[in-house]
TrEMBL record:
The lineage of its organism: Eukaryota, Viridiplantae, Streptophyta, Embryophyta, Tracheophyta. Pfam families: Phosphodiest. Residues 1-43 are annotated as: Disordered. This is Uncharacterized protein. The chain crosses the membrane at residues 49-73.
Amino acid sequence: MDPESVLNTAKPTQIPTREEDPSSNQSTSLLSLSTEDPSSPPQKPTTTIIFIALLLVTCVALSAASAFAFLFFSAGKSAHPSIKEDQTARPLTKLDHPVVLLISSDGFRFGYQHKAPTPNIHRLIANGTEAETGLIPVFPTLTFPNHYSIVTGLYPAYHGIINNKFVDPRTGAVFSMASHDPKWWLGEPLWETLANHGLKASTYFWPGSEVIKGSWDCPKGFCMPYNESVPFEDRVDTVLSYFDLPSNEIPEFMTLYFEDPDHQGHLVGPDDPQITEAVTHIDGLIGRLISGLEKRGIFEDVTIIMVGDHGMVGTCDKKLIFLDDLAKWIKIPAEWVPYYTPVPSIRPPAGVNLSEVVAKMNEGLQSGKVKNGKNLKMYLKEDLPSRLHYSGSERIPPIIGMLGEGFKVEQKSTTAQECGGAHGYDNAFFSMRTIFIAHGPQFGRGVKVPSFENVQIYNVITSILNVPGAPNNGTSSFPRSILLPKA
């Protein structure tokens, strides 16, 4: 099947919600109320006792029915405004063309916005549109795969960046986060889409933006080579300076990237005061941006979309799994393992029976004799849950492991203490969710929308900018569910 056919047939699937454990029926336990003293001898029930018991049961039943009716009829009614049929996009007042500024705060786990006073972020939320329970990243929930999915609308198997670091199985070439050869970067990112249609884009850091590809030549002054030492305030001020250009030179699409709070999250986990400080700093940067746009009289004209690439979860040395502990069932040499955590990957040499490797590894992991073994399950990549969309590329190793939340894999036991934070796990884990906050002429004010996967963002942005998008894994109808129609 040719690549375009694959893109056209690959459709995102909704991540299923976790069902309650059927063995735990809270309603039953609440109704199983006994007022008898267990230490007293059994007595024959009297008519009065039976009457009182029946009356009590009737009252409980009526109360339960009333509560159920309330929940039933209130279901679907949101406590927050939603897009109404008579609402339309607000007209631009100063700019003569739409502008989208896409901001990424790396590792901004959903919920961080409530860890400290964040008046500027909450200003965007109150007057814009928010994914009410967060943005769902793609699997694996790592920085480079997710950033590139956001700007291409493609799952990693289709845009080619399947991990932060990986090996081309055909050539042996190694991809790293400093790789700018276009052979690695498939699909069509937003800056290339705009260039294809004669529009301008600027990128103040974003994975893939330095890659010269198609019509995009990484223009000097509008495509910043990555340099993590550049102060965040300088990045904001540079983006603001683009709005001082003549109107026809202002880029239609801009990116802005901050490494925090991911940096702190890896060091101390998601619940440390350092995270609160980092989130407060990010909020101050958003305030600096808003203030600069207001001084220019264009805040209401510019579409600001603030996202993260993934969440964060705490890890510690007590949550480790060692591959050497599987030696009784199968030996996994280190040279078979291109990646340990959080996406354990196995690429045995030619001639090794892959199914047998998976079976023996799982036998050992489920035996109860491998420390933490039940928190890792191995798959042939084609047998991974289809909702992960993580099998359709030869760059993905043939055997992939799915780890329990916060667990890590290593080759052998060490004495190192490894408490901190990590991401990359199953995107069904709520801890991996991040934020989607959008403010602009085509976003309703104070609107909450259900969570969605970040591959939908590409089509949202092309819709705002009125440009045809490239084939992608997002759904063409999605923008209509989140954007106000044009007047």
